[in-house]
Design goal:
The N and C termini lie far apart (31 Å). 0% of the residues lie in helices and 54% in strands. The protein is mainly β. It is built from no helices and twelve strands. 31% of the residues are buried. The chain has one domain: Lipocalin.
Length: 155
């Protein structure tokens, strides 16, 4: 359920190319490898450019009981740790954008590493793939993949 990471900015100073990550994305909850009762009702990501070459991320998760969790951040994309706010289980993160269509984020909560997430956009710009890597409590490495669809801009 820990889907959707916080906002980060494409600080590709050498590249004037606009990132296809920018925009709003909705999770295909059926793509999550977990029982339907354990899946969130919805997850929305919002990636935006921010002033001074920074990246803004906002995540909203609605669980099966209609409880909302969110996280937001504004970071540089050079891997420098930054703060996140909200009630989702992340308070520090770092991000890099190795290509305009790829965002890599590391998340920490209360001093404990939580996960690394890689977001990549399809060549047609319609599908965002999130690959999450983390460790179970017993130290077993895990990976999970989820798919998001672009939310059309409102007129």
């Amino acid at each position: 359920m820990a889907v959707a990471m916080l906002h980060v900015t494409p600080a590709l100073a050498a590249s004037p190319e606009k990132s296809p990550l920018i925009g709003q994305w909705a999770l295909d909850v059926a793509s999550l490898p977990m029982p339907p009762a354990a899946r969130p009702k919805s997850v929305h990501l919002d990636f935006r450019d921010a002033p001074e070459g920074r990246w803004e991320t906002r995540v909203e998760i609605v669980d099966q009981n209609n409880n909302k969790m969110f996280a937001q951040s504004t970071l540089s994309l050079d891997g420098t740790p930054g703060r996140a706010s909200g009630n989702y289980w992340v308070d520090v993160l770092a991000a890099k954008m190795p290509a305009p269509n790829v965002l890599v984020m590391q998340m920490v909560y209360q001093g404990v590493p939580r996960s690394t997430r890689v977001f990549s956009v399809s060549s047609d710009g319609k599908v965002l793939t999130e690959t999450e890597t983390y460790f179970k409590e017993d130290g077993t490495p895990m990976q999970r993949t989820a798919f998001f669809s672009r939310v059309p801009d409102e007129p």
